[in-house]
């Protein structure tokens, strides 16, 4: 009976049966006699009541007026109790009365254990209850879609999201309607019917964790499908203006949202692969690399006469024109036109120089674009891309140097230095010494202390670690950074496969470079992280054994680690370590920070991931329950 009463109560109408059962389990039955006072006007609201039998009279004490006589299934004091307010009226038993009682303390226990109940009730009352932001941030963190997104970005996203519930068959959004909201599905599923005539399978479902309507919101157009609730559905929505502001502040979100393309675009993916294979940059690459590139493409829509790029807002991406027609304009003259299937912006990815000409749409056009920042992340994952870039840059730079030998530095062929200007490149070049190694020569051996950072200009080098894992470093790549960053001995052996030309940067100059250009340190850290992932996340450099030969950063790392691990050491030694850290050079501090970040990444991410993978593997052998994947879908 109580569960039925709660289900019919508007306050709890948005809860699931399981959530209402949680509330019912915390309520107890209490009897009052006629004339008994259940609660007094102005007193703290310590409980809410659900009438089982009899009548509960609500009285305004100030004028003696009877506000209402509540019979079975009615609630009293619920709003005051939930919001922590004083009772607005007196509650008195008009007859002998049986009520179910939920105390405020029990309510607080409920919403602590089940924060979604507080969020749903709060959405009905129009006032926030509980910590919605924390709940949503945690929910977003559980999605593989946002696994690399910083917490503060997810918190900013969570702050803008609002709860909305739909009953079976209720419309979420209509096709061709202005895209005002993007949605992610918290519970239930939504049926979608696309109006795109090119969709081979226009009907599909979006389930828990999927995003819908995002692509339409980002391009500022209309929804491309009809979306209806398939059963009761809980949605989290974000307004278009709020989402656009977020992707402007955090471009990573735009990249994440737009790379999640509907599965119905299979034919478009094939067309994208064909177009990419026509370029020098992506021709003849392995299919798995190309597929990763295609998954990273984002969709851009431009209306007739809309400007895609200009000298004030240059293009910083490679683009494939899927539909429509574009013009390239300079000084008011049309220099070229792009038709469907055209690809442009390849040199942007190669050289890092944005396209400053004006590109304007002649007609409504759709493009698939690969931003420069996304391409750099792809290079960190795929050696083949880095090698291809270096090869093409060498050819391009050779041509430019032949025409103007004083203007180009050979360092332009190294993606690591893309962001540096000519003056900075010249300063770095002055620290390098050219070294030539015949095929089969050791550059350094495992266990040796690092003396330099090596840039591979020509040839190939085999890097082998203690477990026999092999990495091939080609022109445009680099060697020896791991030992320099960690202040340890080389954890691998580097031997030339062919005749090799490298440029060596001595250790002091390497540290000075990191101090002057911190973004290079971050890039090296990201590359090192990618290498660790490729080595199955189980390769780490050996710990320092000789503190006399270690760099200051490494000695500081050892001091901090052993001070934390040894329970018997005094606080005085810990204070000494902190004081010593303060006297380190900036370069040493940068190395120490990178080492610490990598250590915590390995311990806090990799180890739990391996445990979870093992447990999931054992679980799948015992039962055939499909895993729920938190995947975003865009309409």
Automatic annotation (TrEMBL):
CDD domains: CAP_ED. One of its GO terms (molecular function) is DNA-binding transcription factor activity. Keywords: Membrane, Transmembrane, Transmembrane helix. Gene3D superfamilies: Jelly Rolls. Residues 11-111, 145-247, 281-388, 416-514 form the Cyclic nucleotide-binding domain. PANTHER family: CRP FAMILY TRANSCRIPTIONAL REGULATORY PROTEIN, HTH-TYPE TRANSCRIPTIONAL REGULATOR ARCR. This is Cyclic nucleotide-binding domain-containing protein.
